[in-house]
Amino acid sequence: MKLPATLPGHIAVIMDGNGRWARRRGLPRKAGHAAGAETFRTIATFCRDIGVRNLTVYALSTENRRLRPGEEVEEIYDLLRRYISESLEKMERDRVRLKFLGDLEPLPGDIREQMERAEKVSARYDGCLCGICVNYGGRDEIVRAARELMHLSSGAETGDVTEDTFSRHLDTAFLPDPDLCIRTGGEWRLSNFMPWQLAYAELFFTDTLWPDFSKKELVSILENYSDRNRRYGGL
Ligand code: FPP
User: Which of 55, 99, 134, 214 is 20–30 Å from 48 (CA)?
Assistant: First the structure.
C-alpha cells in the first residue's frame, strides 16, 4: 500500500455503527461490538506499522454508560475484560502501548486492575500509543480538570491558568492534540468526544460501519488528509 508523505501524528476515532452492523446480520448488538473490537486491533497494529504515533478511540461515553440498557453496558464491560486479557497475551506480537482515558472510577474494580496492568506491561513498547476512552465525556473531562486545578492552586493568580496549564490537567495531558478525527457510521457530529483537543483537527466522516472499516479505507482518508491545507487560523 502506498502511503502519503504527510501522516497525522495523532488520529482520533469515533467507532460508530457496531449495532447496525450486527442488526443487518441478524446478530445481537454485542456481536457488533465484538467485531468492532477486532477492527480496532487491526487498525491499531496498522497504525503502528505505518508510523502513526498515537491513536485514540471512543469505546464508551459517559452518556452511553448512563443511557444504554444496563445489559448492553455490561456486555461492553465483558468485551473490555476479554479484549484486555487478549491484549496482554498478544502484547509481544502487537507491540502497541495501551492507555485508558475517561472517568474510570465508576468502572468495576477488576476492569480497573486489568487496565492498570495492561498500561504497565505495555509501557515498554514504543509502537503506536493507543488511547481507549471508557466512560469518557469531553465536558466531564473539562469539569474534572477545572476541579483538579481549583484544588491544587489555591492562592494562584487567574493569569496562572493558561491553555497549556489547563491541558496538563486533562486525561490527554501526555498526548499531542489529534490532527485527524474520523467518525464511522454515517453521523456528522462529535458527540462530546475531545471537544478541547479537536479544536484544530481535520474531520472526516464516513458511512462505513465501524466493523467494516479497513486499512484500505484508512489509507484513502490519509491521502485526503495529506491534501488538506491546515492553516490554524492563519493565512
Ligand atoms: C458505537 O456503535 C459503539 C459503541 C458505543 C461501543 C464501541 C465499543 C467497541 C468497539 C468495543 C470495545 C472497544 C475496545 C477497543 C475493546 P453503536 O452501538 O452506537 O452502533 P449503532 O449506532 O449502529 O447502534
Answer: 134
